[in-house]
Amino acid sequence: MKILVTGAAGFIGSHAAERLHDLEHEVIGLDNFSPYYSEELKQINAGELRKKNIQLLECDLREPISFKLLPKDFDVVIHFAAHPGISESSTFDDYLSNNIVGTKNLLDFVESFDIQPYFINIATSSIYGAKAAFDETTIPKPTSLYGVTKLAAEQLVLAKVRLNQLQGCSLRLYSVYGPRERPDKLYTKLISCGLKGEAFPLFPGSLEHLRSFTYVQDIVDGIVSVLDRFDACNGEIINLGTEEENTTLTGIQTVEEILGKAIQMNHLTSKRSGDQLRTKAVINKARNLLNYNPQTSLKKGLQHQVEWYQATFLKKD
Description:
Helices cover 39% and strands 17% of the residues. The protein has helices spanning 11-22, 39-51, 92-111, 145-162, 186-196, 216-225, 230-233, 248-259, 284-290, 298-314, and strands at 2-6, 26-31, 55-58, 76-79, 118-124, 131-132, 167-173, 176-177, 200-202, 210-211, 214-215, 237-240, 246-247, 265-267, 278-279. The protein has a seven-stranded parallel β-sheet with strand order 3-2-1-4-5-7-12, sandwiched between helices. A two-stranded parallel ribbon has the order 6-15.
């Protein structure tokens, strides 16, 4: 199949693009190389894709003119591109333009195809709200601009499906970690602080937060399995993640165990607005529809992430 992957230079998108290529699909990736986080990391990811001869185009979904670069014969679109996270430096327009306007423009683009591609929207557990421990029938109660705009993006896609203008589904991902994780996220930042002897910024109350920390390749397993089950997944919202819960404290202790050293903490005084208190993936639907069965333990996944960080960022020293 010919597959368009948006956000392909990002964390999960780059892993998915590689896996699809390894499965002998024709993959074209898009990314706007947003300065939200280190462009150096995105360029490293892009380099890994290009080593495999995966075509990667710089394209901003917010700009309709960008679509003139693209063919109109994709069989599948997998839409990762978004403004992520809950950084205080992000504006409402950042979330609105990237997550809602960008998605609408992408949908308008695929509507112009002679044959409509299957549309796999990549969503997030942040849609559920502060406590994301529910099945897909639960009414969303997002508590962040990220969650609100990702819910809107998801509904833009599913509205097209309900109107029989498109076939597709939406996958809500849970607390993904692993090699290429963004530098603003928990584990890359922890590993960086531990290896450089810097203090990790710890938000009050966050040690007790519970997470379904899910290794990135387990997430990619679920995403690619949709390709064999288009009809069964059409119109569905599907949670992808591990059922195992760990506290942030357990995550910190696991990284310290792998590094063989304690990580200094900088105890902040203000909580992070919109942060989730608990994520626990309820994946009965994914098991039934996709035969989904994540297997990677937290320690094994973090060992891979530490090895990636050392090979990627410390080899220059």
